[in-house]
Amino acid sequence: MHITQPVRPQEAINRLLSALEPHATPMNAIARKKINWDYKGKPQLYLFMKGEISMLRASDGLLIVTVYDAHLFGIAEMMQPMRTHVLRAEVSSELLRIDAEDAIQVLREQNLWEEVTILLSYHTAYLTYRDALVLQQRTYSVIRNHLLEMILLPEETRMRTSMLDYIQDRTHLSRSSVLNVLSALKKGKYIQFIRGGYLQHIETLPEKF
Questions:
Q1: Each residue of 57-81: pLDDT tens digit?
Q2: Which candidate among 24, 42, 81, 166 keeps its CA 20 to 30 Å from the CA of 134?
Q3: Measured between alpha carbons, how far apart are the two ends of the chain, in Å?
Q4: What is each CA distance from 8 to 30, 54, 67, in whole angstroms?
Q5: Distance CA 200, CA 193 (A)
């Protein structure tokens, strides 16, 4: 069964970004550089405007999600500073930062707590979706779900990330397990990929294999 991603609340995100941007400071986000939740000892919110930002589990580096559209990071970390996840820029990206206490003042003044709730609900739903992709499923199902997710990415992004890297970054599957399934799918003409393992096309993917 194909697992559907939660619906991204873009209007709520845009309202939050528009309200916070005039008070935020541009910063450099270099490719493959991790971003700290604090700046000069103060917790931060990050306004992601352009590029690619990933969120990884701090304990083992498991990649939870890569974001390509404008987004706001740090709301949950501002309220519950557990620091269980870290941010990483995948390419040179446009980011702005704002002290959490300043952001809270803006949110109060502009009465944006409904938008905050919508965004937090989306984040919770996305974590549930990610768990559904990888937990208590057979190896093939995990790989299938990630291939179906990957084919939705822009071609430029797919040609920069191999199927093996994409799946292994997001799961604990072994290299051999992933490659065996990918090889069988290619032989069965279910998928097409070019040298290096870059996904070009999915013809169809059976529920079981």
A1: 999 999 999 999 999 999 998 888 8
A2: 81
A3: 13
A4: 26, 16, 11
A5: 5
Tell me which residue of 81, 95, 88, 102 sits closest to 38, measured CA to CA: 81
* Angle subtended at Cα 45 by Cα 105 and Cα 63, rounded to the nearest 5 degrees: 155
pTM, two decimals, is 0.87
Say if residue 94 is in the same domain as residue 142.
no
The helix or strand, by DSSP H or E, that contains position 63, with its residue range, turns out to be strand 63-67
Domain boundary among the residues 133, 157, 182 is at: 133
Write the CATH number for 24.
Answer: 2.60.120.10
Query: What are the residues facing 85 on neighbouring strands?
Result: 57
At 14-40, the pLDDT tens digits run 999 999 999 999 998 999 999 999 999
Q: Which domain holds residue 126?
A: 10-133
| Residue 190 and residue 153 share a domain | yes
